[in-house]
Amino acid sequence: MTVGFDYQAIGNRIRKARERKGITQELLAESMDVSNAYISKIERGRTPVNLNNLDKICRVLETSTEYILSGTSTDSEDYMKNEIMELLEGCSPQKIRLIVQVIKPIVSYREDN
Which has the closest alpha carbon to 103: 90, 92, 88? Predict the structure, then answer.
């Protein structure tokens, strides 16, 4: 069984986590003893990140590998909300309206347990 990863999505999450921390690519590269070009390639999804370097990145950025690999982290109470927001990021306004039409009945549904 092989596991496939979306390295572009992983790179985007690394970039966002780095920017939230206010750390430059240069500083991240320096703290890991790698080149700035390597960090750039990872963030653009041009090269896969190995587990050792992923661990280093996560420690420097103070984020979980779970979040970087999957886009979700169960450490946060709002992890599902964050995942939904990330899914909506690339959607057009028309697609978002359609999604809202699908979600509204589900949200307003009352369960009588």
Answer: 88
State pLDDT tens for residues 23-50. Answer: 999 999 999 999 999 999 999 999 999 9
The answer to whether the beta carbons of residues 64 and 27 sit under 8 Å apart is no
Cα dihedral 26, 29, 30, 35 sign = negative
Distance CA 11, CA 39 (A): 9
Q: Has this prediction a pTM greater than 0.70? A: no
User: Nearest CA to 20 among 62, 83, 69, 70?
Assistant: 62
DSSP 89: T
